[in-house]
Amino acid sequence: MTNVNELCETKQKNQTVRKELFEAKKLYKSKEYDKALEIYESHFNEHPELLNNWDRIFYSWSIYQIYIKNQEDETQLFEYTELITELISQADLNNAPVCAYTLSVFRVLNVLKENSDWEYMIYWLDKLNPDLLDEKQGQGHDIVFASNREKYYNFASKAYLECGDYEGCIEVSKRALNSLSNFTNNSDVWYNWRIAKSLKELNQNEEALKYLEEVSKVKRDWFVAKEIAENYYILNDTENAKKYITDAVLTNDPDMIKVNLYYLIYKILKDEDEELALLHAEYFTAIKLEGDARIPEEIEDLMIDEDELDIKDLKHRIKDYWSEYKFTGQELQYGTITKVFEHGKSGFITSVNDESFYFKSFDFKDRRQFMKEGQYVSFYIQKGFDKSKNRQTVNAVNVKRGE
What we know:
The structure is a single chain. By secondary structure, this protein is an alpha+beta fold. Among the domains are: about 235-325, no CATH class; about 335-400, CATH 2.40.50.140. The protein has helices spanning about 1-30, 35-45, 55-70, 75-85, 100-115, 120-125, 150-160, 165-180, 185-200, 205-220, 220-235, 240-250, 260-270, 275-290, 295-300, 310-325, and strands spanning about 140, 145, 335-340, 345-350, 355-360, 375-385, 390-400. The strands form two sheets. A five-stranded antiparallel sheet has the order 5-4-3-6-7, with no helix packed on it. A hairpin with a 5-residue loop joins strand 3 (about 335-340) and strand 4 (about 345-350). Helix 1 (about 1-30) packs across helix 3 (about 55-70) and helix 5 runs antiparallel to helix 6. The longest helix has 28 residues, at about 1-30. The protein starts with a helix and ends with a strand.
């Protein structure tokens, strides 16, 4: 008889719990998240086996609304997101519209990115299956936002590189390039960039250069040219290293952020042209002293007289040298500006041989008032890349008023 009574009591208790869990679901749908959460927490702590899959899903959404959605306390954010990953599984966003599991983990990943906590990020990335993430891009005012799957790969590629897991970075970056249909903000370029950086760290410099070539088609930034030059330097290919050094030096970026470029140039030139190498070592030193930064022992051993350094003169001499070096052996071209676009950022030049060349405003090296249609100019030509048409181009550079 005792067993029968116990069974009846258990059944009645279970019915009461089910009724309360049903009430919690109604409370959630009424947006009374705190009351719903109280019921779910109580029953989960006392008898978790009575919560079915839907109870766990609504419990997770209650946690999300109270502790995750606008959470500023990182400890609580991590703690409750961990709980959600134990309560439910990641939903397949290719079939489901939304997932508390995925939203919560991405909230954590965003915080870790802000904190540059790459090692802890890898722990959380392991909780996501990228194949279950959708490729639906967000739309804003003239902005396209990355899909969940692309965001995952962006986080993973960066995190593995920053943690020094170069093989992991290469693997996840290649998966991104192979699995994503669309890329935002040149993310495909950055995957190639991180693969190249990782390959260099693994002493696979020739392979790294193949990926850097893809990057350089789209990005003409100084640090891309420097990275290419450094790989050639490691391979003892001084001529190609100097070719890319030229592009890096001649950008208009502040030399404070390019300071290590001049240290690299010193190392490339020291066995070839001691005087020219010293010039770059002096400029490197002058920039470092302005920022009160530490100078490498190799440069300190040169015994540079810091009181004699004229940073403006050094900069001028270095720019003049590389400007001349860049176009050594090239024929100076002449033509007329036949089109300047309304935005003033680019245009076309028709050469005396009736060839048309695209140019960008930053390649116009004269006073801006002379960048106008009908202006006779001199210029050199240089390979470029038209990403919109996915093809190589030949552009006009170092454009000046013709004589």
